[in-house]
Structure formats: C-alpha cells, structure tokens
Write a sequence for this structure.
C-alpha cells in the first residue's frame, strides 16, 4: 500500500526540479502564515463577511487588483527565469521541457490572469463612481465574475506543482496541444483554468455594458461621458463578441483530447489551421480589449494634469469605437506565412494598417491637450509621458509587421517578441500603473509615496528599453521565438545579456512599487476627496467612497461637470441644487458566488484528471447554488437617512 501511495504521489505532484521544490516550500509557508495570522487575530469572520461574500464593486475591484499584482509577480518571475536561461549561450539553468512550460505559463498569466483582472479591477473601482451610480447593474453577477476568474486562475496555477504545467505555447496550437504531443494533464489545466476564468470575463463585459448604458447620472448623455467610461464600453463590447469564440475553441480542443474528436487533427479530416484561425479571431481583439481602457486612463490623466478639456473628444470616441470594430478584421496577420494566399494576405495587411489610423489620432489628441496646458508631473503623468514614445515605437513596428512580404522575415522571430511586449508593457502595463496611481487616493483615502513612485517609474522605463530594444536586433539577426538555448557561434550573446539585465531592472522597478505601497500604508498621509483637482464625478465624493457612493445622485450636464461646478463655486455662484436625502437601496452580500465558483474549481479539477467521481458532484454543486440563488428573495436592504447623514458628516470631519 505504501508503495502505491508513493507511486501515486510521484505521478500526482511535480518532482525532480529544485525550482519546483522551492516553490512548494514557499507556497506551504505562505499558506501557513496566512492561516496563522487569520486565526491569531480572529479575522476569519471578518474575511468571510467583509470580503469573500461582498457584492460591493469597490471591494471586488480591490480583490481584482490584489490578485493581478500577485499574478504579475508570478509571471514576472517566469520572465526572469527565461531571461536567465538565455543570458549566455549553452546555458543549462532550465531544461528544454521546463523552459517550454515557463514561456507557456508566462504568456497565459500575463495576458489573462494579470492584465485582464487589473483591467476589471479598475472598471469596478472607477466606472460606477464616474457615471454617478451607486453600484454596477448586477452586483451578484459581479461577485460571481470575480470568483470565477479567481478559481480559474488558481486551477491553472496549481498545475505548477500538481500534474505539470502546459507546454504547448500560450495559445496552445494543435498538434502540440493534442494528446499525441501533450499526453499529460497540463494542457487540461490550461483548458479548464481559462474556460472558468473566461466565463467570468464574459459576464463582466455584459455587466459593465448594462451599467454604462442604463445607470448614468441624470443629464449624462452618451456624448458627455468621461473618456475612460467610453474606453470601457468599447472594450466590453469587444469582450462579448470575442470571448464566446475562445469558449467554443477551447471546448472543441477539449473534445479532441477527452473524447477523441478530430476537429484540429489531420486524422479523420480535421485541420489545425481551423484552431489557429479561431484562436486569433479571439486573440487579436483580446489585445485591443486590454489596451482600450489604458487609452481611456491616459485621456483622463492628460486632461487633469494639463488643466484643460481633452482635445478632440468626438474624434477620441470615434477612434475607440473604430478600433473595437476593426480589431475583428486583422487576425490573419498572425499567419501571413501559412500559405493563405496573396489576396487574403493583402486584405489583412490593409486592415492592420488601417487600425493604426485611429490609434495615431489618440496620440495627437493627447499631445494637443498638453499643448499650452498648465502641466504638472506627479507619478500618474510620468507614466503617461513614458507611454507615448514607447507606444509610438510599438505602433510603428506593428505597421512593419503588417507588411506581408516583410513579415516573412519578421515572423516567429524576436522582432515580434519585442513588438508584442512594446505594446503590452508600454501600453497596457504602463496604462494600468498610471490608473492605479491616479485613482489610488480615491480607493484607499491616501496617496502613494511620490519619491518611491518615481524610482519605480525610472527603473521600469529604463529596464524596458534595455530589455526589448536588443530583441529587435536579435530578431533581424535570425533568433527565433521559443528557443531555450543557442550556440556561441550565433553571435547573439552580447545582446541577450543586455536584454537580461533590462529584465532584472524592471524586476527592481516592481520591488520599488511593492516597497512604495508598504511604505505608504505605514506612513499613511490621508488624501482629500479631490487630491488632483480632477474633472469627473468620482472626485466629488469622499475618499474612500462610502458603501453607497453618492448620498444623492448628481445631475451631470456637461463633459467635465464636476470641474465646471468647481469653477462656478470659485466665481461665487451657488452650487447646483441636490435632491433631499432619501433611504438608499443597496444589495446584500452573498456567499453563493464564492461557493459556486469553488464548485467550478472542483468540477474542473475532476475533468483534468478524468475523475468523474469529483467532476459530477462539482457540477451538481453548481446547479444547487443556482437554484439556491433563484429562490433567495432577501437580496437587498435600505440604508436609512440618519446613517447617511452620519457617514457624510464623518467624512466631512475628516476632510475627505
């Protein structure tokens, strides 16, 4: 019996690599520390009532941000491990198998489990406040969306220590992702981790479309919405069109692996090119899904710190929506070399070039907004300024890649790696960092330390260029993607070493950001409600916002209503009248989203290992949770006027 247990454990757990053992120890110690702290300080009830069961969009946003920063750490460590392996020729730091697993998990984590939740976190933290709403349209669905993302991410990440990580690339092309070449369970962790998380992403897209279209403050017409709200709307419209493609594609891949289907294998008439078309029909809009909100963030920041109305409001709206639509007509530029034909290549080359036009419009609008503005340069504005040259270079190299004949040289090379990271780090990461710095005082009631923030900014930016500029040259020299080692004769040593140094500089930048947060919490300096002299509604309420957001719903008549209101008051005019206080209707917390998502984890884990004894109870639990919610009629409550007055008076007394 003992021998059977040892045999099962050796197959169930990942063994044989010191890095994995180190991860096992660190995970165990972290879990022990968390459980010990919660028990010692008697915080289990607090954790359940205030966080695990919350439907408050602000707390859900905070949990999204925390989860994304943890994933940034995990994905960043993967990146540094890869760069360490490639720093010198003929390195043996990582085995080829381990390297394949790391670059696969790095891509998935950074796109789906870091960028997406950080984006959704900012959606939750800002959008209801910016449009004058008290919550999102569907608070219960919002909580369920987060927990589905979280448990999907955990299911994917557990493959690191149980069963083995996927190793077929971050998009898992067949036949590499089929049973013949990936017989282990790593690919099944990939499928179900992303499937469960993707359901949550789709529900978030639906939730915020309804929130923006139906819950805006009186007077806030569509063409008077803040630009960040417009960017979220365009991103969510893209989500609800793109993510069903991903869901179906992964379902078909699971059928291939689990039931012996042949959708994507050459046996019995299947075709792997069908998978590649489908995955990029989702994958390229996905790039714009995560970049569009960053454009909205930069629009808010540049107007605030230029003390000017955003230049070209209507053209910015048109640009955002044009990108959202056009993003669905560019996917084939990812495989110009696949033999689709000259006419197809020409069509997708042209559409890829066209999408650069609305992108360029936004850059010029930001520059014209800054022109003759009264500029100031706190940390959010620094990230904005760092973004512009970085994204311009990324856009230019994207146009180079869109030229089909030239792409035969660039394709599958490190030139493409550099371009991809130029856009996603210089655009997405820089944008969301800027948004976090900008709205941090509104969320937590205190600012982040500016000095440490500037150190983080410069390490990130200098490290970025040191890391990725050499990779353009390496790509032109012939270095291809996914190589785990190379010889001294290639002549790639110097540039790879420089690139690795740049990667570690960015890692130091991340350490400064963690230090900045911890330092700011320790030496907390409370921020006023409007620390940046902002222009939009979120700055008109206390910091942090009360549970109900607005004591009375404002009437927002202009694009920058709050800014205009402040100008009227400064001129001695009376403030706009507000309706009298009334009891506020709010949703109750619910533990069902957390429990249902946990059952999804159980069902997914069971399907990964083909344990129907686990998967079937998991799905039964999901159905039971749905029925329990359907028959729960006590889903709301009212905040009385006296409590609202006390909350507002306390906020006024604190000067927030």
């Amino acid at each position: 019996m003992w021998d059977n247990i040892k045999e099962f454990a050796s197959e169930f757990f990942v063994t044989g690599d010191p890095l994995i053992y180190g991860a096992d120890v660190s995970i165990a110690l972290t879990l022990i520390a968390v459980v010990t702290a919660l028990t010692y300080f008697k915080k289990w009830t607090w954790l359940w009532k205030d966080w695990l069961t919350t439907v408050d969009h602000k707390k859900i946003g905070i949990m999204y941000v925390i989860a994304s920063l943890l994933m940034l750490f995990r994905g960043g460590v993967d990146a540094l491990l890869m760069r360490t392996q490639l720093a010198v020729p003929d390195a043996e730091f990582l085995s080829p198998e381990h390297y394949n697993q790391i670059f696969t998990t790095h891509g998935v984590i950074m796109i789906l489990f870091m960028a997406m939740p950080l984006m959704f976190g900012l959606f939750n933290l800002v959008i209801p406040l910016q449009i004058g709403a008290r919550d999102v349209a569907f608070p219960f669905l919002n909580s369920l969306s987060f927990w589905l993302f979280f448990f999907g991410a955990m299911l994917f990440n557990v493959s690191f220590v149980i069963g083995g990580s996927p190793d077929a690339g971050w998009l898992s092309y067949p036949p590499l992702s089929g049973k013949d070449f990936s017989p282990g369970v790593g690919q099944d962790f990939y499928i179900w981790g992303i499937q469960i998380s993707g359901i949550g992403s789709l529900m978030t897209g639906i939730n915020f479309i309804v929130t923006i279209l139906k819950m805006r403050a009186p007077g806030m017409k569509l063409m008077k919405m803040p630009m960040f709200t417009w960017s979220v709307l365009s991103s969510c419209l893209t989500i609800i069109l793109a993510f069903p493609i991903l869901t179906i594609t992964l379902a078909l891949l699971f059928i291939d692996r689990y039931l012996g289907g042949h959708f994507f294998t050459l046996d019995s008439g299947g075709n792997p090119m069908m998978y590649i078309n489908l995955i990029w029909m989702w994958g390229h809009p996905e790039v714009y899904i995560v970049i569009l909100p960053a454009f909205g963030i930069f629009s808010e920041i540049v107007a605030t710190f230029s003390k000017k109305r955003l230049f070209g409001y209507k053209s910015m709206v048109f640009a955002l929506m044009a990108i959202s639509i056009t993003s669905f007509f560019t996917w084939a530029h990812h495989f110009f070399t696949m033999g689709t034909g000259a006419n197809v290549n020409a069509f997708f080359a042209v559409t890829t070039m066209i999408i650069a036009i609305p992108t360029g419009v936004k850059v010029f609008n930001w520059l014209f907004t800054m022109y003759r503005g009264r500029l100031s340069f706190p940390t959010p504005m620094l990230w904005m300024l760092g973004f512009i040259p970085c994204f311009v270079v990324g856009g230019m190299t994207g146009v180079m890649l869109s030229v089909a004949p030239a792409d035969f040289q660039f394709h599958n090379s490190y030139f493409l790696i550099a371009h991809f990271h130029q856009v996603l780090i210089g655009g997405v990461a820089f944008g969301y960092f800027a948004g976090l710095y900008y709205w941090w005082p509104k969320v937590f009631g205190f600012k982040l330390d500016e000095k440490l923030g500037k150190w983080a900014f410069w390490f990130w930016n200098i490290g970025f260029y040191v890391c990725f500029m050499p990779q353009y040259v390496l790509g032109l020299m012939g270095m291809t993607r996914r190589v785990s080692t190379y010889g001294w004769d290639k002549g790639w040593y110097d540039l790879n070493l420089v690139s690795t140094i740049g990667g570690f500089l960015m890692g130091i930048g991340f350490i400064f950001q963690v230090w900045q947060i911890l330092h700011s919490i320790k030496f907390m300096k409370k921020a006023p409600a409007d620390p940046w002299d902002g222009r939009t509604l979120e700055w008109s309420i206390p910091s942090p916002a009360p549970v109900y957001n607005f004591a009375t719903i404002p009437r927002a008549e202009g694009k920058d209503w709050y800014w205009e209101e402040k100008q009227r008051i400064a001129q001695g005019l009376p403030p706009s009248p507000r309706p009298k206080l009334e009891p506020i209707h709010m949703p109750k917390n619910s533990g069902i989203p957390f429990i249902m998502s946990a059952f999804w984890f159980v069902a997914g884990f069971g399907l990964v290992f083909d344990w129907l004894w686990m998967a079937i109870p998991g799905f039964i639990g999901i159905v039971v949770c749905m029925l329990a919610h359907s028959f729960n009629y006590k889903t709301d409550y009212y905040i009385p006027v006296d409590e609202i007055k006390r909350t507002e008076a306390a906020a006024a007394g604190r000067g927030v």
Q: What stands out?
A: The first strand starts at residue 584 and ends at 587. The beta strands are 584-587, 636-639.
